[in-house]
Amino acid sequence: MNDTECLYTLITGASTGLGKAFAEECASRKMNLILISLPNENLDKLCEKLKQTYQIKVQCKETDLTNLETVVDFANWVTQNFTVNILINNAGIGGTQGFADSEIGYLDNMIQLNIRAMTLLTRILLPELKKLNSSYILNVSSLAAFSPVPYKTIYPATKAFVHHFTRGLEAELEDSNVSVSVLNPGPIMTNADVSTRINGQSSYVKLSIMTPAQIATIALGKMLKGKSVIIPGIMNRINAFFIRLVTENFRISVGTRIFKREKKNSDENTDNRSKQSSWKQSGKKTIAR
Ligand SMILES: NC(=O)c1ccc[n+]([C@@H]2O[C@H](COP(=O)([O-])OP(=O)(O)OC[C@H]3O[C@@H](n4cnc5c(N)ncnc54)[C@H](OP(=O)(O)O)[C@@H]3O)[C@@H](O)[C@H]2O)c1
């Protein structure tokens, strides 16, 4: 397994969405890869495809990054067996729910994945990154980091952590060979849940939608040029400018209107799905009888 001669790019959450787009973009630039996701058949398929198409080395690891011991073991396995010169902390989860209705496990997973896994992977890999002539850390935050967002509550708070952590670390490493960037994308059509939520938004919000591939190309290019804060797309840069221009109370009242509607759509979809599922189950029972 030991392959410390070659350089690798490590991408978390690489089986789908933005992480997969990062993997494809890096592979097209002939970078060797270490890809992580939850146990998922998509990851193996992606690894095989990238190896064959681009003739690069790809290691896949199915790991639950919400588990402390697993994160530490995984990071130590990486440092002992590979030389990583680019770390892309992409894995993250979110959603739109009233806080009081949220399950404890849902909240805990979001905090452990979005905050703890990113922090510890960075901490454990940093001494190795510092040994190289040049290396990079890219942490995926969100435009949501720039404001409290009702009905998302925990998600923007975790993304504000990612943003502030990354900017602080960047300053600490200013005189080192490690370049540190944070990515703050707006809405991206990734998984079905996110796409349904985005489709229920206003035409204005839809103007800022970008594809995972567009974001990965922009983010990787700017990261390699050493850009600190990467906000892809003109509409997202305009939005980020206005978000920071207006008062926090104004942002919260606009956010309440937008995300109350998103929560309502999301609740209706869940209701429809459960009605369909109970209809299917009752159908099965009829057939079985
Ligand atoms: N989509 C948006 O509109 C949007 C906007 C701004 C920022 N972002 C940020 O962009 C990043 C990627 O988002 P996305 O929409 O592309 O996500 P996604 O499509 O849901 O993909 C998430 C990835 O993370 C992996 N993952 C989830 N839980 C994990 C865990 N416990 N351990 C290891 N891997 C895990 C998933 O693996 P499995 O496939 O195996 O579950 C998948 O590969 C996130 O940090 C998100 O906050 C997204």
Can you tell me about this structure?
- The chain is an alpha/beta fold and 289 residues long.
- It has a single domain, classed as 3-Layer(aba) Sandwich (Rossmann fold).
- It is built from 10 helices and 7 strands.
- It has a 7-stranded parallel beta sheet, sandwiched between helices.
- Helix 1 (17-28) packs parallel to helix 2 and helix 1 (17-28) packs across helix 8.
CATH superfamily name? Answer: NAD(P)-binding Rossmann-like Domain
What order do the strands of the largest sheet run in, or round the barrel if closed? 3-2-1-4-5-6-7
Which residues sit in consecutive blocks of at least 5 with pLDDT less than 50?
278-289
Largest sheet, if any? 7 strands, parallel
Question: If you consult CATH, what is the topology?
Answer: Rossmann fold
How much helix is in the residues?
A: 55-70%
Class by SSE composition: alpha/beta
Write the layout of secondary structure elements.
Elements: E1 3-12, H1 17-28, E2 32-37, H2 41-54, E3 58-62, H3 68-81, E4 82-89, H4 104-131, E5 135-140, H5 154-172, E6 178-183, H6 192-199, H7 203-206, H8 212-224, E7 229-230, H9 234-245, H10 248-288
Parallel strand pairs: 1-2, 1-4, 2-3, 4-5, 5-6, 6-7
Helix pairs in contact: 1-2, 1-8, 3-4, 4-5
